[in-house]
Amino acid sequence: MCGIVGAVAQRNVVPILIEGLSRLEYRGYDSAGIAILDGEIRRVRAVGRVAEMQQKAGAVNLNGHVGIGHTRWATHGGVTESNAHPHVSCGEIAVVHNGIIENHEAQRQKLKGLGYVFESQTDTEVIAHLIHHYFKQGNDLFTATRKAAAELVGAYAIAVVALNEPEIMVCARQGCPLLIGLGEGENFVASDVSAILSVTRRVIYMEDGDVAELRQSGIKLVDGQGKPAERKVHLSEVSLASMELGPYTHFMQKEIHEQPRALTDTLEAVIDEGRFSTQLFGKDAAEVFAQADSILILAAGTSYYAGLTAKYWLESIARIPTTVEIASEYRYRESVPNPRQLIITISQSGETLDTMEALKHAKALGQELTLAICNVHESAIPRASKLVFYTRAGAEIGVASTKAFTTQLIALFILAATLAKTRGLLTAEEEQKHLEAMRYLPSSVQHALNLEPQIREWAKAFASKQHALFLGRGIHYPIALEGALKLKEISYIHAEAYPAGELKHGPLALVDRDMPVVVIAPNDALLEKVKSNMQEVSARGGELFVFADLDSHFTASEGVHVIRTPRNVGVLSPILHSIPVQLLAYHAALLRGTDVDKPRNLAKSVTVE
Q1: Spatial contact of 572 and 524, defined as CB atoms under 8 Å apart
Q2: Are strands 294-299 and 233-235 parallel, antiparallel or unpaired?
Q3: Cα 189 from Cα 533, distance rounded (Å)
Q4: DSSP 82-121
Q5: Mean pLDDT lowest among 5-9, 236-240, 281-285, 342-346
Q6: What is the mean pLDDT of residues 82-87?
């Protein structure tokens, strides 16, 4: 959600900024812009895609050694060019900003009283004028930015340039991701490492309160107290190849088909070890797990559904009481803290603001046993957690999560098995059985991907519909929820999911010939119950689309369509059955002509409330 890129170099930075913004398109945005120091602040902005802004920049021959760029996802103010970033104050200060400034209205009134004229509806313009206010009092840009930042309430990542200090750029972070890229005779800033991979892999992750000054020759960085701070330099493992489409039409399609490899990579350490080890979660994991008497999972969106699935594993395999909460709800209610409760946060990016703030809230209540499940190394949530398990899904560009979801699931299963072992509840025979199931999982997922031609045919029945219903029971109910989410996210078909047993308690009233009903129905203990629920749909004229497996013994008939996965993978079945619902959503969206990778109104990494 929103993207920042900036550069200070001996060469023209405009191509670097434009390429960086193009790499950030997956995060979700509705306008883009850049500002360059070239004897004046030269700015180009456009509503729409980066390509449109690039055309405008080319038309006016932008060229400069210092510049900042931004992709905006509208929060304060509509989607207009005047609201697009960068924002400029008095022709002397230019700013780009991710996040939300909560006290912007009070600051706006104060600045108007000081004579500043506002040209936009954004909270960001407040930052530009506030920095200018301190800058014109004789402060250098670095000091002016620090003073302005001290007055801001809310979340922000900002990059600032000044006409009268044309050799530097200043950046600051509070609550929103921001990193510095280190080059040879040039330095960069970005909200996401993907924006600067073409110019450097050496990055410093800024921490809350940090303010940095970037020059060609190096950087200066202070912490929230203004003291010089040393931050570790990391070598990014993200590859440029993972950011390219290759032979695929969409990133979502590519990422769906990358799941066998993503699962293999995530499982590698466990399979190589040949056992479930607490060391997989960090050096302190054995001690933390020994203290934990219950679990609270905090997450949002797809990650929340991964948590709901994990609840079944954690309680059935590890016999540990587990609660799953939506992160944005948890932090705003009165809860009963338990210092022996393990707090698990799940986030693909590791920067999801709601989840990060929920983690901070839990820790403020004295709950210090924390574990992050995350796909991005050294992101904010892992850094704030005592333990971490990194999934190895690789870069995920499509807004609708696919491979990040299934790798989260396998990570959570590994956790359940590891906890069961530490609690003396997993026999050596059961451990080997689980390990064997995991070894075969990537090939089973590949077999599920091979069902794509059949699922593509099913999608034709959905493309003309406005509503759909998804049903599942037990551990497959969260997969029904995930299937409904995927369909509504990218095809804009209204979809809901229910436990199949709840059908007669309300949703059955919606069932008719225009409401396709998707059923997740593998061969498990609840299969016969699911079959009874399906009969309730058929009796009302509903059309059923059933994802089963070879052992489910379903027979296709008029109004009942059946696709079987090639094998039943037992306790790992939720992971396998995630694949068909992803493919169904993808092909329904294709037929409806939507923007699959960038669905309207949504963003990849939600870093504002």
Answers
A1: no
A2: unpaired
A3: 55
A4: TTSSPEEETTTEEEEEEEEETTHHHHHHHHHHTT----SS
A5: 236-240
A6: 94
Omega cis (within 30) before 86: yes
What is the per-residue pLDDT across 27-64, written as a single tens digit (0 to 9) for each? Answer: 667 889 999 999 999 999 999 889 898 999 889 989 99
As given in the structure block, the two tokens for residue 503 are 């059908």
Six-digit token string for 514: 């225009």
Cα–Cα distance measured from residue 255 to residue 260, given in angstroms and rounded to the nearest whole number: 10
> What's the whole-number mean pLDDT along residues 64-90?
90
What count of other Cβ atoms lies within 10 Å of the Cβ of residue 132?
Answer: 24
Structure tokens at 598: 């960038």
Average pLDDT, the chain: 90
Between CA 164 and CA 173, with CA 168 as vertex, the angle to 5 degrees is 115
Cα separation of 469 and 502, whole Å?
12
First to last CA, the chain: 11
Query: Does the model's pTM come out above 0.70?
Result: yes
> Is the torsion defined by CA of 423, 425, 431, 433 positive or negative?
negative
- Cross-strand partners of 71: 3, 32
Task: Tell me the C-alpha distance between 604 and 599, whole Å.
Answer: 10
pLDDT(129) > 90: yes
Return the amino acid letter for 146. Answer: R
- 3-class DSSP assignment, residue 67: strand
Query: Which pLDDT belongs to residue 604?
Result: 62
248's tokens: 């695929």
DSSP 388: E
Look up residue 446 and give its two tokens: 């590949």
Alpha-carbon gap, residue 422 to 425, rounded angstroms: 8
Active-site amino acid positions? 2, 604
pLDDT digits (tens, 9 = 90+) for 437-480: 999 999 999 989 999 999 999 999 999 999 999 999 899 999 99
The HSE-up count of residue 141 (CA atoms within 13 Å, CB side) is 25
**Digit-coded pLDDT (tens) for 325-345:** 999 999 899 999 999 999 999
Q: Strands 370-374 and 322-326, how do they pair? A: unpaired
